[in-house]
Design goal:
Number of strands: 0
Structural class: mainly alpha
Distance between the termini: 30 Å
Radius of gyration: 22 Å
Length: 61
């Protein structure tokens, strides 16, 4: 499905008018810095400092 920028822009504006909101969620911030992730990282660092953990090579994903 090939759409021109003009068509996409028109579709966006029509959706905004129809729903009286933007048709997608906007999220601020990086989930890396969320409280949940920071708590997990601190727990993991503590475990490593206590000698629990295993050294390995980086894994390519």
């Amino acid at each position: 499905m090939r759409l021109t920028l003009s068509t996409v822009y028109t579709m966006l504006l029509k959706a905004i008018v129809r729903t009286r909101s933007i048709p997608f969620n906007i999220q601020a911030g990086d989930p890396f810095y969320s409280g949940k992730n920071q708590a997990y990282l601190m727990k993991s660092i503590k475990e490593l400092d206590e000698g629990h953990g295993q050294e390995h090579e980086l894994i390519d994903a």
